[in-house]
């Protein structure tokens, strides 16, 4: 388990807020208290015994979505997210936590995921290659969309591919909540359910990053390799009739795929193969701003997370006002659905879906 790093607390509290302009909770709520500097100052004051743990302080610990945007800007190589996570785990253990955190854990116990009831009930089937769509996709999309991902992957690999059952969510929200025991049990069960799988192909980058980076820290030996959907699909299998002129789209790097997993070029190459022209935000690749679609903050402060995702897309909105009608593409349903909820006036797409449709020769959006 992470622990509170006194060096980070001391360094950040003395910093002139050099990463305040990238922290989603600070931007979404426009509150100085939620800048990494002030969050770590409060962690330090608590550790020194100058303030006590109460609901207000716990809310500050929960105002972090583990995006790493602060660390990517930090000249002093500090990682506030780790210490904030450790603080949340203590707050959770003492049950001094915001009500929405209790609700997320409760929904996990009842429905197996942080969203709520999922209608789809595909057969429990196993194969060497299994596709994990992610609970966000099961919750927000019709079952046929998952089937499209499965068919395209099967065609790409020319061997049977089955889907993981929607109940088998990775448990990232439990982890972000600081519910360590619940998360450990959940992760153990997840691995047990997939013990006969050799390749777990994961569509949502939040789930892929979580299973790859957190499960081994629990001492779990993964019987399968974890591959992201973009990486599992063979680009050479694309036999698409290209349009004469590429269609411009903005690409937004999701933090778990980009900053945390180092996958920057592949989505851009896929878009090029599909004959789209990639437009870049001013901050992209490792410096991309996070949407607040992952972690716990979207659950503890949905308004702040959505406001931030709305502000983030101002450049795209301005392009639309100029009559350019430009769309946004990102990767995974967690990102897509969160950004869409914040920006119902814009067109937001999931690259996984485009790749699957491209390989199956189905019509693509904007064509
Ligand atoms: S992470 Fe770095 S830039 Fe951000 S507050 Fe801490 S020391 Fe400053
Ligand atoms: S990890 Fe992200 S949300 Fe957390 S303090 Fe850093 S910038 Fe803010």
Which descriptors apply to this entry?
alpha/beta, Rossmann fold, 19 helices
Q: What does this 3D model show about the protein?
A:
- The protein has 367 residues and is α/β, with parallel strands linked by helices.
- It folds into 3 domains: 6-97, no CATH class; 129-232, no CATH class; 235-359, Rossmann fold (3-Layer(aba) Sandwich), CATH 3.40.50.
- The chain has helices spanning 6-13, 24-29, 36-47, 55-61, 69-73, 80-93, 99-111, 135-140, 143-157, 172-177, 180-193, 205-213, 229-232, 265-273, 297-300, 302-312, 314-321, 333-342, 351-359, and strands spanning 129-132, 161-163, 199-202, 225-228, 247-251, 276-280, 327-330, 348-350.
- The strands form 2 sheets. Strands 2-1-3-4 form a 4-stranded parallel beta sheet. A 4-stranded parallel beta sheet has the order 6-5-7-8.
- Helix 12 (205-213) links the parallel strand 3 (199-202) and strand 4.
Category by helix and strand content: alpha/beta
Fraction of residues in β-strands = 5-15%
Q: What hetero molecules are bound to the protein chains?
A: iron/sulfur cluster
Give average pLDDT, whole number. Answer: 94
> What is the total tally of β strands?
8
Main-sheet strand order equals: 2-1-3-4
The level of helicity is: 40-55%
The CA-CA distance between the termini, in Å, is 48 Å
CATH C-level label of the largest domain: Alpha Beta
Largest sheet: 4 strands, parallel
CATH topology of the largest domain: Rossmann fold
The number of distinct structural domains comes to 3
**Overall geometric form:** globular
What string, H for helix and E for strand, traces the elements in order? HHHHHHHEHHEHHEHEHEHEHHHEHEH
């Amino acid at each position: 388990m992470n622990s509170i790093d006194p060096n980070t607390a001391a360094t950040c509290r003395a910093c002139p807020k050099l990463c305040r302009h990238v922290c989603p909770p600070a931007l979404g709520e426009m509150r100085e208290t939620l800048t990494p500097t002030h969050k770590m100052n409060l962690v330090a004051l608590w550790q020194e015994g100058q303030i006590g743990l109460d609901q207000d302080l716990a809310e500050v610990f929960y105002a972090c979505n583990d995006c790493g945007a602060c660390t990517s800007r930090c000249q002093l190589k500090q990682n506030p997210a780790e210490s904030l996570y450790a603080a949340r785990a203590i707050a959770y253990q003492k049950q001094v936590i915001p009500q929405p955190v209790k609700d997320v854990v409760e929904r996990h116990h009842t429905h197996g995921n942080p969203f709520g009831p999922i209608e789809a009930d595909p057969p429990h089937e196993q194969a060497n290659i299994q596709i994990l769509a992610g609970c966000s996709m099961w919750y927000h999309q019709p079952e046929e969309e998952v089937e499209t991902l499965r068919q395209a992957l099967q065609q790409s690999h020319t061997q049977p591919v089955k889907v993981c059952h929607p109940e088998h969510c990775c448990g990232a929200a439990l982890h972000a909540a600081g519910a360590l025991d619940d998360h450990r049990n959940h992760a153990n069960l997840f691995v047990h359910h997939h013990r006969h799988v050799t390749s777990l192909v994961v569509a949502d980058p939040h789930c892929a990053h979580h299973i790859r980076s957190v499960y081994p820290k629990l001492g779990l030996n993964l019987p399968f390799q974890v591959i992201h959907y973009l990486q599992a699909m063979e680009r050479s299998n694309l036999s698409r009739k290209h349009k004469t002129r590429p269609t411009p789209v903005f690409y937004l790097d999701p933090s778990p795929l980009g900053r945390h997993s180092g996958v920057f070029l592949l989505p851009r190459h896929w878009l090029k193969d599909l004959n789209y022209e990639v437009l870049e935000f001013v901050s992209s690749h490792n410096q991309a701003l996070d949407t607040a679609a992952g972690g716990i903050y979207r659950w503890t402060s949905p308004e702040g997370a959505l406001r931030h995702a709305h502000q983030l897309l101002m450049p795209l909105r301005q392009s639309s006002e100029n009559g350019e009608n430009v769309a946004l593409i990102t990767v995974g349903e967690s990102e897509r659905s969160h950004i869409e909820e914040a920006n119902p006036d814009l067109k937001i797409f999931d690259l996984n879906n485009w790749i699957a449709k491209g390989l199956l020769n189905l019509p693509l959006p904007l064509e």
